[in-house]
Design brief:
The chain contains ten helices and six strands; from the N terminus they run αααααβαβαββαβαβα. With 277 residues, it is of the alpha/beta class. The protein binds zinc ion (ZN).
């Protein structure tokens, strides 16, 4: 439905579409331990591990999960080539090396960051996670890795109840609206970019801070989300930092949700044009 929405908005010309391959096992294992990913793929995770993920391990889900991680890596490579690239999936930031949680199985952004750094393609990258839930697993995975700066802005009272320490955490009270949210993120992000000087930003553009989201607890409007995405692209692109986006979370009826996830593609297209990409 998101792909269809992008087509209707004129944001998905055939020449702009790239199709990923499932992530190779050796790359997945830069983050995830073999006993975990094998048990997931074989459907032999114990009941507690499955309950923690919250999704049934069906064959289509297994295929989708490997493909989504491959997609995030492809998106990052395309961003390095073109300046901006957007993934139609990804953002599963509650997946830890040995277990999944909160609808997240593999940590696509963490795998992507590790692969690019270990290839020597990059020396420093920043993860900007504006999904309404804290990027807890991502924070833990890179806690002792000075090559990766983790920034998470999230609702204080939301899942996960046990927060981890990102390199920078902004936590919002329930019900925060556009103006207060944008003021704080808009003040913090440019400072972080100046200080850390990343060569790539991996942006989790979760739409669950939206006021109609079933799990979000914040109160952003459509326009607020769009302005947020513009703000991220503009802050990065004016500093010649490429941006790769993933869709992150969003919980609502599918039709409004697909439109909401399309906002980051709209912002990407406009900002790419504004910055001459
Ligand atoms: Zn979320």
């Amino acid at each position: 439905m998101l792909f269809q929405a992008l087509g209707e908005m004129g944001l998905a010309r055939p020449s702009q579409i790239h199709t990923p391959l499932p992530v190779p096992r050796r790359w997945l294992e830069q983050v995830h331990q073999r006993p975990y990913h094998e048990a997931f793929a074989r459907g032999t995770l114990d009941r507690q591990a499955q309950r923690r993920i919250g999704l049934p391990a069906t064959t289509p889900l297994v295929q989708r999960t490997w493909l989504a991680v491959g997609g995030t890596l492809l998106t990052a490579r395309l961003a390095l080539e073109y300046g901006v690239a957007c993934h139609l999936a990804g953002g599963t930031h509650h997946a830890f090396p040995a277990y999944g949680s909160g609808f997240c199985i593999f940590n696509d952004i963490a795998v992507t960051a590790k692969v690019l750094l270990d290839e020597g393609r990059l020396k420093r990258l920043m993860i900007v996670d504006l999904d309404v839930h804290q990027g807890d697993a991502t924070a833990v995975i890179f806690a002792n890795d000075s090559r990766v700066f983790t920034f998470s802005a999230h609702a204080a009272s939301n899942f996960p109840s046990r927060k981890q320490s990102s390199d920078c955490d902004l936590s919002f009270e329930d019900g925060v609206e556009d103006h207060a949210y944008l003021a704080l993120v808009g003040e913090e992000l440019p400072l972080l970019l100046e200080r850390f000087q990343p060569e790539l930003v991996l942006y989790n553009a979760g739409v669950d801070p939206h006021r109609e989201d079933r799990l979000g607890r914040l109160c952003l409007s459509d326009l607020g989300l769009l302005q947020r995405d513009h703000l991220v692209f503009d802050a990065c692109l004016r500093r010649q930092i490429p941006v790769a986006t993933v869709i992150g979370g969003g919980y609502d009826a599918l039709e409004p949700l697909a439109k909401r996830h399309a906002l980051v593609f709209r912002a990407a297209a406009d900002q790419a044009r504004l910055h001459g990409l």
